Amino acid sequence: MSLIRKNIHMNKMKGKIVSQITLDDDVNVADRLPDIGNKITETGNIVVDGIKVSQNKILAKGKLKFVMMYKAMNPSVEIHKLEGSMPFDEVINMDGIEEGDTISVDLVIDDLSVSVINSRKISVKAIITVIALAENICDEEFAIDIDDDNIEYIKDSIELTQIAIRKRDLLRIREEINLGTGKLNINEIIWCTSSLFGQQVKVMEDKIGVSGEIDIFVLYTADDGPLQWVDANVPFNGIIEVPGCSEDMIPNIELKLANADIEARPDYDGEQRMLQLDGIVNIDIKLYEEQQFDIVKDAYSHKKEVILKKKSTDYENLLMKNVSKCKVVEKLKTRNMDGAHILQICSCIGNVKIDDISVAEDGLLIEGVIETDILYICSDDMNPLCCLRDTIPFSQKIEVNNINNDSIYNIKPATEQIQANMTGTDEIEVKAVILLDCIVFDKMTKDVIIDLEEKDYDMEMISELPGIVGYVVKNDDTLWSIAKKFYTTVDSLRQINDLKTDEIKSGQMLVIVKKI
Q1: DSSP code of 500?
Q2: What is the DSSP string of 410-425?
Q3: Measured on CA atoms in the order 344, 349, 352, 353, is the torsion positive or negative?
Q4: From CA 330, how far away is CA 352, in angstroms rounded?
Q5: Phi and psi (nearest 5°) for 479?
Q6: Angle at the Cα of 346 (from 345 to 347), degrees rounded to 5?
Q7: pTM of the full structure
Q8: How far apart are alpha carbons 288 and 405 in whole angstroms?
Q9: 320/442 Cα distance (integer angstroms)
Q10: Quick one: which of 283, 356, 380, 427 has the most CB atoms within 10 Å?
């Protein structure tokens, strides 16, 4: 006698924790830079140097790189940038994790504030939110058959989603952008931002296609003339080799712009009229397969007593995988001094942050904000370059049938598009489309048979049972439960009682003949 088993590759969430890192430091202005007149704007990005996992701990090491753009303290209109970095080395306690677990750590700048202390010193404060997700990829065995003709058994259908492929990769992007007609030669790059838009993935046989656009904005000083800027979309596409993947797998793939260095380069004539983009897109790949099969639910024998060994097993079943779109429209007021008004909008970038996710009736309620950063030219001759920074709230319900409080979900926000238009001398209308890439699993628990033993029946007890009885069916009875209780078989019950199907009704009379 032996169990026939099926091995399932499963991804189980061990835990999730949200922590925060607080950074605070004063930074001096480099000697080569002029005194600070007034700050225009600031930005930052996180560089992760390493993530290490030990027993119940995660060590995150990296640095926050920041850039402040400011107007110099002199009568002319000079714009400069002050760069710096702040290292961090944080230990995150997370019970239950150990070496070998798959750890996903996402570090997000939750707040960055740069304030001017004096003309030669600034104060930099930042809050970094750390979201750590621990998963354990393990194999579970399910009994799908019993190799013994003397054992009666029934099966139960099970549906689950198993992880087929888990992989991380990257795509390097190297592109050149030529300055358009009417743009002056580059002297010095003052400010640059980059954002990932329109990312798409396509699962194919043994590979995945990725594509999208990197939107770059570059503000620079010219050899002779006013400030210049370039706003360009750089398309990209690439193929990631993923042996074993197939078109029918369910993708949960995240693309993140990890790095985007932009430098000025000479063109064929030797003039600084080229911008070179060197970017890295990190690709986090999870591919799932839905499976349905029958497992052994219960067993007995009329030859020997069968003792079943069971264990409780958790598994996940896909409820929904979808991308929801949320449109946002908001009018923002500028706060210029001395009545200066908007002349031209230079750039608009948006960063989506989710503040809260709650399980609602048949869905998930998402609440968050899109942080906007708008650079524009105003009519103030002494302070022509301004920045409008504001937050626009949004709320979106994602329909998920049969969701409950135990369901496991993951939502990846992104900005599909954002644009800013002047609607008045002191008003800007922002229109944005937010993407919410959502995957939801139903967490299931089932007692599964892992082994069974046989031993001889207590024949003295068996002999005392009547050989034939009449039985009135109760509410929860099935032919299986009755056959097991009275040491007979389902086939025998059907034959003796002339039953065409396994359906029986409460109050129905059955004749039972003991098989032992």
Answers
A1: S
A2: EEEEEEEEEEEEEEET
A3: negative
A4: 15
A5: -60, -35
A6: 105
A7: 0.85
A8: 22
A9: 9
A10: 283
